[in-house]
Structures are given as C-alpha cells and as structure tokens.
Design goal:
Blueprint (H helix, E strand, L loop, with lengths): L12 H17 L3 H21 L6 H26 L9 H21 L6 H21 L36
Helix pairs in contact: 1-2, 1-3, 2-3, 3-4, 4-5
Length: about 180
C-alpha cells in the first residue's frame, strides 16, 4: 500500500498524494469502499497530525499545499462514504439515510470544488461527475426545492472538536433528529 512514515527533513506531499489517489482509484474501481475509506482516514490522521504539530521543516507555501491535499483526501473520503451508503438500491427510502447522503454530498462537493482550483485528474473528474449525478437523482426523486441545505458564507470554519480547518478534519457534529 502506501508508506506514510513521516520524515521532517524530506517531504514530498504531491508524491504521497499521487500514490494515495492511484491506490484509491484502484480500490474504488473494485468497489472496495472499506479499504478506500481506511486509506483516506490513515492519510488524514497521519498528515493531519503532522500539519497540526507543524513537524515538517517546510515553508508556509508547503503547509498551504498540505492543507489543500488534506482537503482533497477528505473529499475522496466523503465520496467513498457516499458510494458505500448508496450501494443499496433503496437507500433513498430511509429519511435518516437521505439526510446523511445529502449532507455528505454537500461536504464532498465543496471540498472537491475547492481542490479542483489547484489539481485536476481522474479522481476529481470522477467525484464531480458522480456527485452531479447524485444531485440529479435527488432532484428527480425529491423534486426541486423539496429538501433543505442551509448555506453560510464564511472566511474560515474550525472544527469544534479538533479546532482545525473543517474541510480537512474527520469530525462531523450531528444534532439529534427531532
């Protein structure tokens, strides 16, 4: 798989992510969602902690690149979860699952749209194409405007659990359904 041993003197984020994306695409083609999810989680845990602790001896631009790559991998993680959840043909008949898919879809699209400004490739194209199709499915099944996704514009949003940029963390705070 991918060696995610960190060395603070020698860091090639692009190469590590390139290897991860290649492996991730292969797993997704084989519908090995659990393995793809673990791959993303391991990368985010390893590099997210390194990012937070600033253990790399790199300049600010490299840290910004790492943040973008963490957002990319979190978007791939969201997409992997969407694929897993929507594997069942009747997922859209369960209200809680529909809500979970919609929230995950919005998160995924936001992350991938952000990252697509900096990177392109088969993985990003696949996620965009499939998420567009899933959004069309929502419109076909539930109609235009029959569901709600509140939107807010903000400069920065920190996770209330780990206090990192929310696009790169693994936490999703859920409120109980009424």
């Amino acid at each position: 798989m991918i060696n995610m041993t960190l060395n603070s003197n020698s860091v090639d984020f692009d190469a590590d992510v390139s290897n991860l994306v290649e492996t991730w695409l292969d797993l997704m083609r084989k519908k090995q969602h659990d393995e793809a999810k673990i791959l993303c989680i391991d990368f985010i845990a390893t590099y997210g902690l390194a990012f937070k602790q600033r253990i790399f001896e790199v300049d600010e631009n490299e840290y910004n690149k790492l943040l973008i790559l963490l957002v990319l991998v979190k978007g791939l993680h969201d997409y992997t979860q969407l694929c897993h959840i929507t594997t069942s043909g009747d997922w859209h008949e369960n209200n809680a699952t529909v809500e979970e898919v919609w929230i995950k879809l919005c998160d995924c699209r936001e992350r991938i749209k952000f990252v697509s400004q900096f990177y392109q490739g088969e993985a990003i194209e696949r996620v965009i194409k499939d998420s567009d199709g899933l959004e069309m499915f929502f419109r076909d099944v539930f109609g235009n405007g029959s569901y709600l996704s509140p939107g807010i514009i903000m400069d920065k949003y920190l996770c209330s659990i780990c206090h990192e940029d929310s696009r790169a963390c693994l936490h999703v705070v859920r409120s109980p359904l009424l």
